[in-house]
Amino acid sequence: MSRESREARIYQRFLVEERERYSDEARAQDEDDMREWIEKAEKRKAIMYEEHDKRRKKRKTEAINESPAATFLPEASSSSLTQPPASLSAPVHVEPAPPGGKRPSSPDSAAQTSHSRYAVNSSARSPRLIKRMPMRMTAPDDDATASDTRALDAVSATATIASSPPSAPDLTPPTAVQLATPPLDKEKGADTEPAVVAPTVASASASNVATSTPPDAPSTSAPSPTKKKKRELPPTFLSPPKASSSKSATVAARPTKSAKGAPKPPTKREIQRAEKTKKEAREAAKKAQEERESRMTHQEYIAYLPQKYATRNRKSVLQGCVFLYIHQENKMRTSVQSRRCYDLMWEHGAEIVAEFDPERVTHIISCKPKLVNQTCQACNVKTIHDIPERIKTFIWTWVTGCISANRILTAASDDNYKSFIDRPPIPESKKFNPRRHEERMRRNEHDSAEESSEDEAVADSKQKTGPIPVAGPSTVVAAPEKDDPLAEFYEQARYEAEDAVSGDEDDAEPDVDAGPSSKAKALKGFQCDIVGAHLSIGSECVNEDIVRKLEELMKIHDARRENESDKFRVIGYRKAIAALRRHPTRIQTAEEAGKLQGVGNKTSEKIMEIISTGGLERLKTERNDGVDVMELFRGIYSVGSTVARQWYTLGLRTLDDVRERKAGIRLSAAQEIGLRYYDDLNQRMPRAEAGEIYGMIKQRALDLDPKLDIEIMGSYRRRKETCGDIDILITRDPCDGKTHAGASRCLLHTTSSYHTCLGLLMKLLRVLHQDGILTEDLSVSHGAGTALEAKYMGIGRRDATSKRRRIDILTIPHEQWGGALLYFTGDDIFNRSIRLKASKMGYSLNQRGLYKGVIRDPRDRTVKLDSGELFASRTEREIFDALGVPWQEPWERVRG
DNA sequence: AGGCCGTACTG
DNA sequence: CAGTAC
DNA sequence: GCCT
């Protein structure tokens, strides 16, 4: 009550102040803009989804008919170049239909209409509108592509006009700013979105529930606290997968309980020590347990499950299912992953069998896609079609999907078809529903009505929401909800995460009884731990010739990129090269090279060859013009290896080919911009210029709100002599009740003050466009209009005479300053390294901060079953300390 | 043999 | 979802 | 590619 009302009061004051700055007329205009903006955005999004869906389906069917082919062809370009004859001479912006004309007509017409609309837009807009009203959407929303014109469009358009008149449309295509739908249209968006009035530090800690809630109706009227806050924590969101692992049946005592019961009174140190001994005992037991388990066969482990979980209640999500799990492992042992999968399935109520029994098995779960052979083998059938239709075949992600949705997913309700192994398409449409119903009836005799009657798709959206990480000051640990069924799980996760740190802290604490303090804790071997790694970088490298050759080789692999492993090969090369660059003395022998971190056998052999012969055979044999062309194409912003190869395969060889849209290629808005300023954007700018542009932007931002915190990051912050782009980070201390965000949806609907809805970033962009500092936009994050966290990516320049430069602007919640700074300062290798270390220590590091207690899907580590809890993020140093990484100034973080 | 950073926008 | 970027 |  008190917090809400105080926030409301603060917000009221904020409104009053804001109102004073606006004339009635201006406000009315802004309100219109905003309303219109929201409507259009929602409509457009709907259309886009629809279109996209259609297109995807179409493409799918096409793909089947067409041969894959498209490998790297060294020559034979000329023939394909001449293939679409008409197009080459045709006026540039008339796009030739793709060969075969499979696509709907939209592309061509879209390109044209958007051009013409561009003209209309820019001329029809009254000067006043252009000036203070970039949100205006004049374009009718008739076709998906053209309706891209929006938001900043007007502003960027004006800027573009200056440089090249619309009469040459081929040179100045519209700046298709993609100011996509604001998060407003998602329930979720509105909720997670921080309020204009962010809770103060104190109030944040006072509420242990989720994040700040936007002050509902700031004034009196009927506040509707009902629907919004429903979601705090879905009753049974997901379950502790990890829990099982630590649950060694032998270790009965649940340390979590005591931890929960005894909050703070005893000194921190005492608790830590007590926990440490407990933890050690636990760990020993756990390890022994793991050891035993790993020696079991799959069959044995499955048989052992009931015993392992004898003392625990099982969840019911998967109740009634009988799973056969398909894996690729040696039958005599079980891997950790498989065991975790078994655990998870069992814990959620599934029965598991080791051998296929068509009478019993209801689902076949494959640990990964495409294990058709293994599946057939396990089921003792010839083809996958011989498996009775009633038995569903899914891949593992389906299981985690079911668990987080808390229901059995079906192909009908879940369009994630990837979760399903390809089976004859018939059952899906026709027989599926009745059968599903029938099945459901059978397996849910007990908990009946509610489940079977529900519309799954709808139910899904209700339940999906996960727990929201507490974004408070990192020192505050929110207590889990008393009646939250997952409380104990969170507690467990937290406890385990602390294990990871406490060891490190021991090292720092002199008083702890010597003993096992420095156990295995000190994780090492991470690039980020090496202090002074940058020192040998600045000067010209003594191994430059070697590096050159290896870089060549890397580029070749980069260009080829036929499969996933090529990607990692490139990363491997990059690391080796970085190590070589850092090495201060001339490499003399292969052994010497091999000692470097990141340089292995293969590379040291190559190095040896270079040293002795001065060249690399491999370079000569592998090199072809494809590599050069791919490199050329990839220089275009937003063109990556895939597109570059596509174009090459289509016969394109030069940028002019691209400009002329040979072979009917189409460019995205960003690619078009990237192409237009190809030369500018591929050139690094002198450090001084970056500083100047930063200064100009900072000035304008401070004009809007003097209390902003603004910092330049990236290579500038690392003190590089030249900068590839300009990264600017903006935040604002919410201590006075204001933030840099705009109003959230609920405010928009409960007040009539739409003008306040424009977040700082939006306002700033407007100004920068007006002043000609920003000239084009590449992408603007959804939250730019309203959210605390938003990212802008675009192009700008110091003045009309200088080159165009990449500019990124980021706004973030104040408490994430450290995490964001760390991340956007880099460099790349340092980031990877420090994140890897975090992950190995049981944390997760991202641009928002360091999280602990993150639970990942044992199968797919990128899937988080629990997003964890913010652990440190206020300052960079806080994060370094938590990870045991020695402090390094930004310019000391250079690794590549 | 299995990893290799983690997240967001576009279309 | 794939591709791209940071 | 490299590393565990």
Description:
It is a single chain. The protein is of the alpha/beta class. Among the domains are: 292-420, Rossmann fold (3-Layer(aba) Sandwich); 525-680, DNA polymerase beta, N-terminal domain-like (DNA polymerase, domain 1, Orthogonal Bundle), CATH 1.10.150.110; 684-741 and 757-883, Beta Polymerase, domain 2. It contains 39 helices and 16 strands. A hairpin with a 7-residue loop joins strand 14 (855-856) and strand 15 (864-866). The two termini are 53 Å apart. Mean pLDDT is 63; it is low at 1-27, 56-272, 412-419, 424-521 and 746-756. It binds three DNA strands through helix 2, helix 24, helix 26, helix 29 and strand 9. InterPro entries: BRCT_dom, BRCT_dom_sf, DNA-dir_DNA_pol_X, DNA_pol_B_palm_palm, DNA_pol_lambd_fingers_domain, DNA_pol_lamdba_lyase_dom_sf, DNA_Pol_thumb_sf, DNA_pol_X.
